Amino acid sequence: MHTKDENMRVLVAEDEEVLAELVATGLRRAGFAVDTVYSGDAALAYLGLHDYDVVVLDRDLPRVHGDEVARRLVADASRTRILMLTASASMEDRVEGLDLGADDYLGKPFEFPELVSRVRALRRRSARPVPPVLERHGLSLDTVRRTAHRDGQELDLSPKEFAVLQILLEADGAAVSAEELLERAWDANADPFTGAVRVAMSKLRGKLGEPALIRTVQGVGYAL
Asked: Which of 128, 166, 126 is closest to 146 using CA atoms?
């Protein structure tokens, strides 16, 4: 079961303090829990203390270089994903950063919505791996072949319906909010209202047939 945005921890390691605080404020508005540090040694100290989903890591940090922070995270087999920031957006720089173990790369200056969407995408990769086949209540979902069956009968699901069903199955009986479904199954350009979720849920219920498997949990969301 994935954590929701507000449980997602991000460390911003950026020596330009004004920029660091701007990034942190924006990420908090997007619903993340954010800490800021202004040097590489402080970044390593915080990364050793807390379990971060993503670190937004400036490459040119004082005291301990951003490259060294990335190397140590990789050496420790950390699940923290690395979004590296750099003043140079040259191809050589990007390749070097990725070779060091960064998961993604953003050149300065950057557009803020892009930073948020990249952090979100990395969070999805930092979550626990999903088993290839999810099963519950006679439903079977093959996440590799992208097929779904109920009691042996194949279901004809749209990509969106498949994504919603996968999220519900991953929750293992726990309720999932409409907001979390929107954030995880719809892209950043989706209409930010939960009506889209209701429509998709209605279609998915119709395709799953009787007896009904998805229940609405009042004030919380949906559960399987």
From this structure: 166
